[in-house]
Amino acid sequence: MSSGRLAGKIALVTGGASGLGAATARKFAAEGARVLLTDIDTDGAARVAADIGDAAASCRHDVTSEADWQAAVAEAEAKFGGLHILVNNAGIAPAGTVEDTSLEEWRRVHAIDLDGVFLGCKLALPLIAATTAREGSRGSILNVSSIAGIIAAANMAAYNSAKAAVRHLTKSVALHCAKERYAVTCNSIHPTFIDTPIIDKMIGDRDRAQLLAKFARQVPVGRVGEPDDVAFAALYLCSDEAKFVTGAELYIDGGIAAM
After folding, report:
1. What is the pLDDT of residues 114-166, one digit of tens each?
2. What pLDDT, on a 0 to 100 scale, did the predictor assign at position 2?
3. E-state strands within the chain
4. Which CATH number fits domain 10-192+228-247: 3.30.1490.100, 3.20.20.30, 3.40.50.720, 1.10.1670.10?
């Protein structure tokens, strides 16, 4: 049952068509927020928004495009009247060692996983700051990094690099907001293996159950995470309960970073 932890809040969630974005959008709406789901998968985002109901809307959004970011932020203001929360969730996770990864692939991963976060922070922050100042309310930016941004793997060179950069960018944004006296926090979350479509892409044509079991053996608690494990963490960090938490990183990794 909803406790209204985000009552009155307006959120923009990128990569909202599936996985962590869809789970986060559903959780936010259930807790009283109005949510704009954005994605290059317009049909998927529209389906999730329709399932949520009147509290949600969707739009096409390539996070590497400055024009698309400007349009998405404008849509949030036009549709809902402002913006309090940005969740930079959209991303890709291709494998590749430093020798295997082409310069083109390196740039593609960083464009989506890092440049997209930069553009979101840069272009959404003015509206979040203006909305919260007008209302005397609080806002938040949440950047979805990865445990791979903390602990590297030999076969994830570009992904490790981009997600580690998201972690540090988050801290810079948090300090900027504090210096400017914006009522806006900025934090990052760092999930490990979560059962989402990104996992399916990693599995490919291999046996799903066997590969999930292999992933689970790498996690101290013995299982792969569920989308709601991340959505609950996002809910806390984007609520007023976390108003004194900024520049922080939350590991959602079943204990991997503790080893």
Report:
1. 999 999 999 999 999 999 999 999 999 999 999 999 999 999 999 999 999 99
2. 67
3. 10-14, 34-39, 56-60, 85-88, 139-144, 184-191, 249-252
4. 3.40.50.720
Q: Where are the domains of the chain?
A: 10-192+228-247
pLDDT tens digits for 99-119? 999 999 999 999 999 999 999
Please tell me the number of Cα atoms within 13 Å of 247 on its side-chain side.
9
Active site residues: 159
Residue 1 has pLDDT above 70, yes or no: no
Phi and psi at 238, nearest 5°, equal -100, 0
Taking the C-alpha atoms of residue 44 and residue 201, their distance in angstroms, rounded to an integer, is: 17
φ, ψ of residue 88 in degrees (nearest 5): -85, 90
pLDDT digit string, tens, across residues 175-193:
999 999 999 999 999 999 9
